[in-house]
Amino acid sequence: MQWAVLVLAGLFEVVWAIGLKYTVGFTRLWPSVLTLLAMALSVGLLGLAMKTLPVGTAYAVWVGVGAVGTALLGIFLFGESAHPGRLLSLALIVAGIVGLKLFTPE
């Protein structure tokens, strides 16, 4: 259950990271409100997951999910580079997340 909460926290991290782009420096009200809400949910869920998961594992997975998700959405929403080396690097992050799941005692 904590892993599901942790992945959800990472997904909310993606929402707020992408949301930052739409806030235009927090000058647009509704994108700013949604971004701040996603930030609070992301950190709150991370805190819940850390009740039972090791802090290093939880933080690394949270950041990894956020980084991969944000980079992929950057490619699809903003036309950022989809260079094969970049995609390989993202795949390595995913492999690291899987490794942490496999080798973290519950």
Tally of strands: 0
Q: SSE string, helix = H, strand = E? A: HHHH
Largest sheet: none
Count of helical regions: 4
Instruction: From the alpha carbons, calculate the radius of gyration and give it in angstroms.
Output: 15 Å
* Shape label: flat
Question: What would you call the structural class?
Answer: mainly alpha
Distance between the termini: 10 Å
How much of the sequence lies in strands comes to: under 5%
| Arithmetic mean of pLDDT | 97
Question: Which percent bin holds the helix content?
Answer: over 70%
Which consecutive residue ranges, at least 5 long each, have pLDDT under 50?
Answer: none
Structure in words:
The chain is mainly alpha-helical and 106 residues long. It has helices at residues 2-23, 29-49, 55-78, 84-102. α1 (2-23) packs antiparallel against α2 (29-49) and α3 packs antiparallel against α4 (84-102). The protein starts with a helix and ends with a helix.
